Amino acid sequence: MKQIGFILYLNGFLCAATGRLSGLIRDVSTHQPLIGVNVMINGTEMGAASDMEGYFRIDNVPVGSYNINVSMIGYEAVSRANVHIVPQRTSTANFDLHPAVLKGEGVTVTAKFFEQTRDAITSSRTIDIEEIRSDPVGAYDIMAMMQALPSVVSGSDQYNEIIVRGGAPGENLFVMDYLEIPYPNHYPEQGKSGGPITMVDTEFIERIDFYAGAFPARYGEKLSSVMDVTLREGNRERHLGEISMNMAGFGGNVEGPVSDNGSYLFSVKRSFLDFVIVSTGMQAVPQYWSSQGKITYDLSPTKKIMFNYIGGIDAINIVGEDNPSLRGAENVEFDSQQ
User: Fold this and answer.
1) Are the C-beta atoms of residues 199 and 174 closer than 8 Å to each other?
2) Closest CA to 255 of 247, 246, 264
């Protein structure tokens, strides 16, 4: 009986040490789903092809970090590094492929009068969630991570605002799923986009496109930079939840399917310094809440409707106002809602 029990336990452990990889593959220009795209996990013999709606799924993938290769005739091949597979969960990796012209006979072109400037490089950078997770500088804060990029600095250590090429903090555009967010941080200042802590849940992010200059014409009314954040969709197979705690606060998020054609994401977080303020000796007690959600519903294979919201509540007050050393700081309170 002991041997049978050990074999059953070992079998259950091996089954739990696998996960699933799924995603959607589209044309970057038309946003149409691509059929028959080859998806291979580098270093293994596992792979799949996208279906009629552009989705793919690979089951029973051993737990670990892999490089994913995506290829199709007529499109540029894409390779994404450090895609993590966790036990008994579905990891999502979406791809947008760029069309590529098939090569034919060579044509020789000789330049005579005009030559492109060699140092005229477009100041753009694309960052995915795996790069955010592995970044040692940003502390899982996307605004702080952008400060490590070339041509970007911060005004002070207390704010995660970004200053690009000597511009003002209010000259930066922050876009999330095609919606402009004027103040994406807690405790913002009028005319500035920075604050001590971001309200955006990093676990919701799929990709960030950052333009430090020469950004497309669809981004208007700003002078310095554009940060275009694309949020992922919720899990469409089952309901999942997660609880987290870090220096920015504690909270949780949930996700799952909505009927057969949609998904949802929801998170709420709160600061915890007011719970331990007695032991720290601090007198200025910050309190803040942040909440974010996204609902996606497919109207057809090529059209979908999305509902996004993000909100925050900020408050700070001075503790110990009767202390003589705090003369002049009586009745200091601050409240705001975004």
Assistant:
1) no
2) 264
Question: Domains in the chain and their CATH numbers?
Answer: 1-100 (2.60.40.1120), 122-232 (2.170.130.10), 240-337 (no CATH)
Structure tokens at 248: 């920015």
The whole-angstrom separation of Cα 316 and Cα 285 is 6
Residues 6+ apart with CB under 8 A from 184: 143, 174, 176, 193, 198, 199, 200, 310
User: Encoding tokens for residue 40?
Assistant: 């291979």
Q: Of 61, 80, 68, 65, which is closest to residue 15 (Cα–Cα)?
A: 61
Tens digits of residue pLDDT in 111-166: 665 544 444 445 778 888 888 877 766 567 787 788 778 888 777 766 777 888 87
219: DSSP letter? S
Distance CA 139, CA 26 (A): 32
The three-point CA angle 126-127-132 to 5° equals: 165
Backbone region of residue 181 per phi and psi (left: phi > 0; alpha: psi in -120 to 50; beta: other values):
beta
Q: How far apart are CA 274 and CA 237, in angstroms?
A: 38
pTM: 0.64
CB 177 within 8 A of CB 294: yes
